[in-house]
Design a protein that fits this description.
alpha/beta; Protocatechuate 4,5-dioxygenase, Chain B; 9 helices; 22% strand; globular
Length: 303
């Protein structure tokens, strides 16, 4: 039986790809993000010791309309330049094995539940930087693990996101893959306007675009730390309405759906600080099965 061995809620901000120290200081001033070290430490201290086969990445920049779409290509390779931030993120070479088998298994499971999911291997289907930036940190080395990139559907409800997540969890359980889920996106997501954005580009919490957004983000992170995913899900509609979370919070909702929804109780371990990025709220939180929770067939992530 397959299994989800870990789950990660993570930032993917373009500043992760600024490699030059002077350029980092020039952009962020004295309050430089902690995420460079945090991403590397999470990979080194947590992921590297895990036995798993594939990442499923819920990508908040891949917005679809009529279906949830999975990249079903057998190989994901190319050179990426961001259309949003080309000066900051350009000429990124990538080469990962894809996972068409898992994509098709998820599509089959979803269709059996009456859900709109498409495993696409259409020519020139693009990847987006929430997948690529995160994989550059979490999936390094000469023999990278499989990568299955998944869209978020911009017309979907919270119930849709949870249902598709549950189908993904069931498909993993029915298969043979050991999987790490990655919810690639931020928390509150309200940018500073263009006249102020460069002046508020530091990681300081003073540069979150509103105190109300910051307070809600911090509440969500407290619930993550406590494993109270039931609280997060109960508040999801209000959080979406008040704080405009990235991807309409679908990256987290799909991950939570795959892990059992309100029954999921894994506690989160935060890597790096909670930080600002041009007004938005960003964090990295790692979830792993508690040592005292048995692995039961057909019950990935459920209490």
């Amino acid at each position: 039986m397959g299994e989800v061995v870990a789950a990660i809620f993570t930032t993917h901000v373009p500043r992760l790809m600024i490699k030059d120290l002077a350029a980092r200081r020039a952009y962020m001033g004295r309050n430089i993000t902690t995420f460079y070290d945090a991403m590397e430490r999470l990979e080194r201290e947590r992921l590297r010791r895990l036995e798993f086969d594939a990442f499923i990445v819920f990508d908040t920049h891949w917005l679809t309309t009529l279906d949830y779409v999975l990249n079903a290509h057998a190989r994901l390779n190319g050179i990426y330049t961001s259309e949003e931030q080309p000066a900051m993120l350009h000429d990124l070479a990538y080469d990962y094995p894809g996972d068409p088998e898992l994509a098709q298994a998820i599509e089959h499971e979803a269709h059996g539940r009456g859900l709109h999911v498409l495993a696409s291997a259409h020519h020139n289907l693009p990847l987006h930087y929430p997948t690529l930036n995160v994989m550059s940190y979490f999936n390094p080395g000469p023999t990278p693990r499989r990568v299955l990139s998944a869209s978020v559907c911009q017309t979907a409800s919270i119930a849709n996101d949870l249902a598709v997540g549950a189908a993904i969890g069931a498909a993993v359980e029915r298969g043979a893959r050991r999987v790490v889920l990655v919810a690639s996106g931020g928390l509150s997501h309200h940018f500073w306007d263009l006249d102020h954005a460069r002046l508020r580009a530091s990681a300081s919490l003073d540069d979150i675009s509103s105190l109300a957004n910051r307070m809600y983000d911090e509440r969500i992170l407290e619930w993550f730390a406590e494993g109270r995913h039931d609280y997060v899900l109960e508040a999801a509609a209000e959080f979406r309405a008040k704080c405009s979370p990235e991807g309409r919070f679908a990256h987290y909702l799909m991950m939570a759906g795959a892990m059992g929804g309100a029954d999921w109780n894994w506690r989160g371990e935060q890597f790096g600080r909670y930080e600002a990025a041009l007004g938005t709220g960003q964090a990295i939180v790692y979830f792993e099965r508690p040592d005292d929770e048995p692995i039961r067939a057909g019950a990935t992530g459920r209490a």
